[in-house]
Amino acid sequence: MIMNYSKKIFIICIAFCLSSSLWAQVGISTETPDPATQLHVVSPSNNTGVLIPRLTTTQMNAMTSASHSMLIYNTDNNKFMYNAGDAVSQLWTTVGDFPAVEDITSYTTGQIGDIRYNNADDGVYYWNGTAWTKLATSPGP
């Protein structure tokens, strides 16, 4: 009985140690990652950076499940782009632009505060939690 109990405690301790290492922060070129980050990259000589994945427009559009907020560098238009949609309905948007949609009436939901440029009427809309509300009419993005 004591042997069985000891084995259980040992297995629990090993499982805890393994699972806690899975939640560890990652530091590249640093042994003390900022506690507010999951990934902390430091340029050891202050002369290097991070290279974001580079894709053509065709490659970007071929992704079948790009997560919301995925960031890439589009080599066809030389701009950073992110998915403002979700994995099913991707909405690739240039960083700094409002995501543009063909017709806002086809979008029935959003996150509170989302902003979209509507090509159908040159309007800027935001999601107030229950509906898209028009803010203004302006030239396109």
Global geometry: extended
Uncertain ranges: none
Biggest sheet features: 4 strands, mixed
Strand residues, percent: 25-35%
Measured as a percent range, the helix fraction is 10-25%
- Whole-number radius of gyration? 23 Å
Order of helices and strands: HEEEHEEEEEEE
- How many H/I helical runs? 2
Number of strands: 10
- Give the N-terminus to C-terminus distance in angstroms: 72 Å
Structural class: alpha/beta
The pLDDT mean sits at 84
Kindly report the spatial arrangement of strands forming the biggest sheet: 3-4-5-6
Describe this structure in words.
The chain is of the alpha/beta class and 141 residues long. Among the domains are: 51-97; 98-141, no CATH class. 19% of the residues lie in helices and 26% in strands. It has a four-stranded mixed β-sheet.
Task: Give me some keywords for this one.
141 residues; alpha/beta; four-stranded mixed sheet
Topology:
Blueprint: H1 2-22, E1 26-28, E2 39-41, E3 54-55, H2 57-62, E4 71-74, E5 79-83, E6 92-94, E7 100-101, E8 115-118, E9 123-127, E10 132-137
Parallel strand pairs: 1-2, 3-4, 7-8
Antiparallel strand pairs: 4-5, 5-6, 8-9, 9-10
